[in-house]
Description:
Elements: E1 24-30, E2 32-33, E3 36-44, E4 47-51, E5 54-56, H1 63-75, E6 77-91, E7 98-111, E8 121-127, H2 129-134, H3 143-152
Parallel strand pairs: 1-7
Antiparallel strand pairs: 1-5, 2-3, 3-4, 3-8, 6-7
Amino acid sequence: MNASHPPSPAAAPGHVVTRQWKPNVTVAAIIEQAGQFLLVEETTDRGNRFNQPAGHLEEGETILAAAIRETLEETAYDFTPEALVGIYHWQHPGNGVTYLRFAFCGQLGSHHAERSLDEGIVRTVWKTEAEIAAQAALMRSPQVLLCVQDYLAGKRYSLDILQHLGQAL
Length: 169
């Protein structure tokens, strides 16, 4: 059941506008090589922060395709998801936005050095779990460290758990 929200500033006088609450569906790639994890440094409203290659699911896109696309756009690397590490539900304390994150681990592929990184991405970096934990205040969200810890704990779920029905009724 959706709760009513205060009238929208655009609402006509005497009319209450309700909005349907929906989480932001995001994907993230957990990529480890020799004990280090691939992160991106990105500009945010809180200054530069670190995150896994991650982003929003786009209309008409599968969750796996989103993880592959976001990794390429943010790092210029191909990514092949091999397992689901976890699904994370988090509400941003500053703005109240709710995120539902699907985190995947897999193999890093070819690097496309000629490709420019997404707007807002400063650079890619490799950090250990200890470095990520020590720099927790510089992470985009607590999901960054939690995803790494879950990966290191061996959490893996078959990609078969994801079923894309498209526009089936």
